[in-house]
Amino acid sequence: MTRSVSKPIAGYRRGEDPGGFPGPQAEHPTESRWCTWTAPPTAQKPFAGDRAIRRFHEVDCANIHRGVHELSQRSTAAYEETRSKVRRFLNAKSKEELIFVRGTTEGINLVASSWGRRNVKAGDEVIISAMEHHSNIVPWQMLCEETGATLRVIPMNDRGELLMEEYASC
Description:
Layout: H1 47-60, H2 70-90, H3 104-119, E1 125-129, H4 138-147, E2 150-154, H5 164-168
Parallel strand pairs: 1-2
Helix pairs in contact: 3-4
């Protein structure tokens, strides 16, 4: 039989991490935090983000930059305000420098196909590590095949540590 040994923290519900993320409760006296080795699309999301998305779907759901009706205007205003906040957070010069994508894979494919095709040439090296997710390998493999660049992979050991010395000797 297992029992939870975690104690509630004032202002947080059971199952809610004080950092604003949901998560399992400790089931063992030595467990104080938890981690997951899962893909980002299935990772825990912050409660604030979940609440904002739920509110959008319940109250303001409409296509952005597409309509003149109130919902579309509110959605567009919220989207543009988010771009401004992200611009400030990243210290970008303008919000037009930002491109929002649906996920990491789409972003990596966009960088490899747009920036990569313009900048990576025959004889160049693209460097990745052996610990990369498949979605961060294939776009670079394809780019190297197209351009004649070389794909170099930093090896890793059984503990998940990159072997930089081995990589440097190749």
